[in-house]
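> forwarded from #structure-qc
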């Protein structure tokens, strides 16, 4: 039986964690005052990227997909409340109806023709887009032939020139090509075939990710550079900020940051008379498969078609309501029942395990939110939910340990967490950053590196943080941490620490990388063997 003093120390530790977590929830739910931009006389924004693939399981990668006309009509009716224009990226899968639907609402369209690897499909896209532009010349205000095709290396500059020249010869609607600003600088010849330059300015996705504080300055720098380089008008075809996802150095996705960037950008665009298109109208869950969690959360509307924020008034990062309280109460009840079931009736023991239950419940609530945002397919659900379950079971095992002492289950679960932490740390390393952009990789090798690259992977802090704290600090306070003699822990932990440190060295301003290194350090401390195991 544990000494009462140890239980009191442990209770104080848990209550300190509860106070920190409660303060974090309170802070995240507080409205933040943000700049309010001066809008046009109509009160509407210029233009927004529109894609209708926001429902469960919807994706443009299903070739047989055809978007219903009623969906497009209702979406554009909603968007017409805030925007004068929508930008599309394809005329396939029912999107050829967008100009007609927009015409009925008095909206304008930046009509996109998707250019990929397959020539036959490209030809169909361009021909249909030209036909639609000619059919709705008062609605289609620009024809965008290709989107980041050169960035993706799916066609050459000469091929793109040919498509642009074909469009120029076939319609009076202004023609353009859209790509990130660096690729316009690499392919200035394209200017001769367009009526204006369409450039993407995405501070989060820069090779040197921009912090929110520098994002607007970056946009101004890009526009200044483009203006000095090209003689034709420059249109900002995409700009925005994600509301959820992985931190990239000092570039932090969050709802408040998204609202702040867009509000500041709209004001600067108004002051400098920039024409722009925001990315994007509605969150696109399918993009998570390409870009990680962050890819699905660039929308001004969520998948329920609710506005994520307004362009006036304060904005709160989270709107949790009483959910954390309910989950915490459930955790409290579960741990008190478990403690009583192990015939432990002392007040400090009940306080110790009850406080742990509150932490476990609140953490489980955060883990559920993380799983919903980060899990892109069945395999990720199984792996990430499995890690979460291991951590929860490790915590649920503590009421037994305070009455019976350390057990094999605790050691087994610790090993799983440490090994999973090592694998996760390796996968988090942005390996593509070691390969120069102009280096051509074999397609198979490139695919393997891409699949293992950490650029798009979140730091899974909610899954590991509480178990790591309890194993490394909680068990020490309780006097229950038993040093293993399993020598391989040393090698596993060294690999994990080196990998986590590499992530931090590559992104020294990434607070999540700092916290992840701390989590791995806690797991290493809890599992570091006291001596090498004998052969």
């Amino acid at each position: 039986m544990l000494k009462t003093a140890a239980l009191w120390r442990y209770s104080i530790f848990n209550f300190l964690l509860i106070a920190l977590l409660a303060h974090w929830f309170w802070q995240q739910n507080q409205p933040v005052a943000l700049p309010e931009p001066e809008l046009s006389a109509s009160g509407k924004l210029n233009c927004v990227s529109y894609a209708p693939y926001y429902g469960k399981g919807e994706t443009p990668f299903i070739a047989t997909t055809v978007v219903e006309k009623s969906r497009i009509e209702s979406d554009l009716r909603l968007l017409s409340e805030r925007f004068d224009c929508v930008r599309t990226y394809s005329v396939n899968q029912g999107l050829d109806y967008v100009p007609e639907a927009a015409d009925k609402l008095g909206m304008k369209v930046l009509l996109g023709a998707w250019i990929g690897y397959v020539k036959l499909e490209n030809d169909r896209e361009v021909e249909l887009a030209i036909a639609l532009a000619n059919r709705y010349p008062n609605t289609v205000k620009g024809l965008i032939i290709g989107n980041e095709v050169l960035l993706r290396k799916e066609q050459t500059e000469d091929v793109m020139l040919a498509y642009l020249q074909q469009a120029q010869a076939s319609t009076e609607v202004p023609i353009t090509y859209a790509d990130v600003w660096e690729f316009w600088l690499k392919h200035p010849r394209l200017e001769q075939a367009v009526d204006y330059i369409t450039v993407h300015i995405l501070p989060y996705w820069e090779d040197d990710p921009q912090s929110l504080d520098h994002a607007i300055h970056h946009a101004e720098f890009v526009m200044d550079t483009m203006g000095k380089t090209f003689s034709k008008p420059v249109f900002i075809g995409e700009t925005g900020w994600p509301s959820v996802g992985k931190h990239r150095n000092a570039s932090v996705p969050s709802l408040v940051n998204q609202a702040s960037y867009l509000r500041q950008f709209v004001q600067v665009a108004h002051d400098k008379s920039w024409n722009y298109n925001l990315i994007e109208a509605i969150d696109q869950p399918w993009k998570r498969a390409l870009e990680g969690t962050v890819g699905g959360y660039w929308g001004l509307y969520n998948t329920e078609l609710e506005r994520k924020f307004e362009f006036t008034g304060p904005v709160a990062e989270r709107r949790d309501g009483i959910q954390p309280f309910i989950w915490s109460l459930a955790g409290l009840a579960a741990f008190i029942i478990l403690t009583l079931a192990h015939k432990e009736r002392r007040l400090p023991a009940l306080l110790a395990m009850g406080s742990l239950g509150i932490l476990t419940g609140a953490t489980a609530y955060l883990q559920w939110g993380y799983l919903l945002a980060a899990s892109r397919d069945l395999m990720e659900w199984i792996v990430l939910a499995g890690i979460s379950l291991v951590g929860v079971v490790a915590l649920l095992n503590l009421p037994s340990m305070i009455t019976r002492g350390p057990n094999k289950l605790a050691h087994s679960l610790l090993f799983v967490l440490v090994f999973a932490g090592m694998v996760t740390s390796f996968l988090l390393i942005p390996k593509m950053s070691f390969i120069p952009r102009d280096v051509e990789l074999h397609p198979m090798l490139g695919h393997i590196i891409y699949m293992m690259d950490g650029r798009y992977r979140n730091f899974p802090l909610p899954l590991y943080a509480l178990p790591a704290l309890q194993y490394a600090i909680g068990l020490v306070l309780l006097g229950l941490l038993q040093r293993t003699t399993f020598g391989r822990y040393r090698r596993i932990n060294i690999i994990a620490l080196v990998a986590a440190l590499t992530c931090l060295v590559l992104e020294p301003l990434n607070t999540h990388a700092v916290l992840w290194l701390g989590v791995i350090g806690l797991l290493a401390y809890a599992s570091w063997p006291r001596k090498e195991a004998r052969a």
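QC bot note: The chain has 19 helices and ten strands. The chain has two domains: 4-27+322-527, 42-316.
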